[in-house]
Structure formats: C-alpha cells, structure tokens
Amino acid sequence: MPNIDEEIKDLEAEIKKTQYNKATEHHIGRIKAKIAKLEKVKEERSKKSGGTGFFIKKGIYPSIGLLGPPSVGKSSILNAITNAESRVGAFDFTTLSIVPGVMEHKDMRFRILDLPGVIEGAHEGKGRGREVIAVLRNVDLIVVVLDPFKFDTSYILKELQREGIRINQKPPKMSVILKDRGGLNITKVGRSEFDVELLESISREFGIINADIILRQSMTPDTFIDGLLGNRVYIPAIFILNKSDTPEFKKALESLESLGIDPIPTSIIKKRNIELLKERIAGKVRMIRVHLIPSNAPSDEEPMVIREGATVEDVCKAVHTEFVEKFKFATITGKSVRFPNQRVGLEHTVLDGDNLTVFLKKG
After folding, report:
1. What confidence tier does 93 reach under pLDDT thresholds 50, 70, 90?
2. Nearest to 77 by CA among 122, 118, 20, 115
3. Spatial contact of 246 and 222, defined as CB atoms under 8 Å apart
4. 156 and 260 belong to one structural domain
5. What is the count of structural domains for the chain?
6. What are the distances in angstroms from CA 98 to CA 29, 66, 104, 123, 349?
7. Would the pTM of this model clear 0.85, i.e. be above it?
C-alpha cells in the first residue's frame, strides 16, 4: 500500500499528464484537493510524532529569512548588511544551522537569518530542504537570493507552496460557516467569479457537505483550497540577483524579468545596491514608534522602534527581562486606547505614537 508521499507523487503525475481544458478542470480541481488533504494529514502526523520542531521565536525585531540555492552569496549578503556576530532574541533551531545577524537601518533594527541552501528535490527530504522552508513560516519577509548561475525560481517557489507559504499574496476573502444540516450553499458578494459546481466538488473532497460559504473575490481552485484549509501563511518577498559584476548577469536578469520577477541587482565585490537592499527590506516590514515615559520624570529619550503588532510584554522584554517579571500594570496614552492614561496589561497591543509608562512591583 503506497504511503502518503507516494500517493501525492502519483496524483501530481496524473495532473501533469492531464491536458487542461474546460472538460478536465473539475477533475484537476478534485486532484488538487486530494493532494492538499494528504499534505494536511502528513503535517498533522508530523506534529503528533514530534516532527522537526524547528521554529523561530517571535522577537521585538522583525525576522528576515535569506533563502536560495547553495553558493549564491547569501552569507556574503548577510555580512554586507549586518554585523553577523550580533544576535537578537532567542533561537530554537535544534541541529539546523542558521546564521543570524542584525541589520540596522536609520533608527530600525532587523533580525536577518541566513538559511542553508535549498536544492531541487528538497520536498523529498534532500538537503533537509523541507525543514529549512518550514522555518520561514514565522518570518516577516523572505529575501530570495539568486545568482547568474543559479536563477531558477521554480523549485524554490514550489517548496514554499508545499509548505503552505504564499509570497506576495493576500488571504482569500471568504468565510466558511459549518452547519449540522441544510446542505452546501456557496454564494458570492460583489463581482466575484467562480465555477460553483467545481467549488462544491472540492468542498466535498474535504468532507464539507453542510455549510454556508461566502466568497468576496474571484476564486481559482487553488485559492479556494487555501481558504478551506485556513493554515496558509502570507508573507511578503523580494528577490536579489547577486554577482551582478559577472558577464552572465544580463542574460539571467532578462530571464527573470520575462517571468515577471524584478530582482535587485547586487554585487558584494562592487558593493552595488547594498544600501538599496536595506531600504527595500525596511520598506517591506512595517515598524512603529513607542515613547517610553518614566512614571516620575519627563523623558527626553528617542522613541523605541518596534515591529507592528508588538505587545506591552514585547516592549518590556526589549527594555529588561525584569520589567516582565516585576510587571504590575502599564498606562498608555495614544491610538491603542480609548482614553488617556488607560491601564493595560502585558497582552495589550501597542500602536504607533503610543506613550507608555510601565509600573513595577516593589521588591
């Protein structure tokens, strides 16, 4: 009896040999649903057995993952934009070798992660590729590093897709309300376009037979499957074409541009576009400024720059771990609260421009 990987491989082979047209799109859609369902089962089994356990603990600074084939210059890029000896926050990579560094740009700091090179066939376990890709589920930005000799993005994008990572995309605008009875009702809002029968067929592959599904955008089978699963992550990404000082660079650039990819040309030797790369990274990751106000005196300090979505606990950790251990309460004046000097707890999410005062327990 074939295992899950073999079943997935057989289904993918069936898609490849099936000529896509109006008559076969329902068949292909159902196969894609079966593959997604098998991938979900595989993921759940991995979690139950302990899996790889690789993850990035979210810190106050945004995490940027450098991803690409081996020997395209990721380490050189890391050294060019960071102090690779600096480390921020806590890492848990077990035996996976990832080199962290800190990039400073203007008054902001970013945690840069140089991941091991990903080779073709990574999803089959080659080079521990799936484990490397899985780490990226928790980063704030993916930087895909290529060079004129290794600029094929197809297998890298496929690995991201398999791991449930959607780059430069938005989550599907849809809602699924499960019911005990009443059948399957798929309705649309606005000008969304889709094949109702095909989406109904895909829903039934997932065992959804009684539900109200409301779609607020046009739906392809792939997008609809992502929405049904609900376990996809949506991460911005930029591309680098390194070694732009080589003769082969122009041809590689033209090839990528023909695919709609507009990479940043970089060269460590020529120090080309290093500052531009920093600007692009900073521009892709949203940051906010929070003013820490002492309880007994006015503050002349510069605001703290932290990631969007940070909590009071994140701010406290950035100041000193003692601030969390002895935390009593905090008061905030700003956009995140309803009135000035409102009391909040560690779980409160701060917003740009907030004035924050932390009160600690005595002793």
Report:
1. very low
2. 115
3. no
4. yes
5. 3
6. 37, 10, 19, 19, 30
7. no
| pLDDT single digits (tens) 172-211 | 999 999 999 999 999 988 877 888 999 999 999 999 999 9
Choose the final residue of a domain: 188, 203, 229: 229
Nearest to 63 by CA among 114, 8, 110: 110
Confidence of residue 88 (pLDDT cuts 50, 70, 90): very low
Query: How many angstroms separate the CA atoms of 297 and 359, rounded?
Result: 13
Helices (H), 260-338: 274-284, 312-319, 321-325
Distance (Å, rounded) from C-alpha 255 to C-alpha 283? 26
User: Residue 58: its pLDDT value, please?
Assistant: 58
Mean per-residue pLDDT, 89-94: 40
Range of the domain at 351: 287-360
- The mean pLDDT of 8-30, rounded to a whole number, is 86
Residue 343 neighbours by CB distance under 10 Å = 12
Q: What is the mean pLDDT of residues 136-141?
A: 89
- Look up residue 222 and give its amino acid: D
Give me the residues paired with residue 147 across strands.
150
Q: 290-342, pLDDT tens digit by residue?
A: 999 887 655 556 788 888 888 999 899 888 878 999 999 999 999 999 999 99
Residue 7, number of CB atoms within 10 A of its CB: 16
What is d(CA 201, CA 30) in angstroms, rounded to the nearest whole number?
7
Q: How many residues does the chain have?
A: 363
Of 1, 18, 11, give the one whose Cα is nearest residue 38: 11
Among the candidates 242, 261, 284, a domain finishes at 284
Q: Report the interhelical angle of 196-205 vs 221-229 (nearest 10°).
A: 40
Q: Which ranges of 238-330 does DSSP label H, i.e. alpha helix?
A: 249-258, 274-284, 312-319, 321-325
What phi and psi, each to the nearest 5 degrees, are found at residue 76? -65, -40
Q: Are residues 201 and 299 in the same domain?
A: no
For 207, phi then psi, to 5°, come to 80, 15
